[in-house]
Amino acid sequence: MEQTLASPRKFYVTAIDGQRVHFLAGPYDTLELAEAQVGTVRAIACDFKQNSNAGRGHFMAYGVTGADDGHKTALGVK
């Protein structure tokens, strides 16, 4: 999928927990870069050695979100 002028400027790996969205990693300049990191970010989120809240990570849905505004992320750019 190509980014068009109407597309958001930055992309983030996010986790959805019920109605809450958590911005975990990013920002990435392209959708493809962010999508390539979803598995790595999910593994970190579910690993008790790297994340004390890993128990909840197993029940979240992971993907990519585009946004015009900057968001602070838990992992930064991975």
Describe the structure.
With about 80 residues, the chain is an alpha+beta fold. It has one domain. It contains three helices and three strands. The protein has a three-stranded antiparallel β-sheet. The protein starts with 9 loop residues before the first strand and ends in an 11-residue tail after the last strand. The model has no long low-confidence stretch (mean pLDDT about 90).
The biggest beta sheet, please? 3 strands, antiparallel
Task: Report, as a whole number of angstroms, the end-to-end distance.
Answer: 21 Å
Shape: globular
Low-confidence stretches: none
**Number of separate helices:** 3
Count of individual beta strands = 3
Order of helices and strands: EEHHHE
| Overall structural domain count | 1
Q: What does the radius of gyration come to?
A: 12 Å
Strand line-up of the largest beta sheet:
2-1-3
Strand content: 25-35%
Tell me roughly what share of residues is in helical segments.
10-25%
Q: Structural class from helices and strands?
A: alpha+beta
Query: What's the rounded overall pLDDT mean?
Result: 88
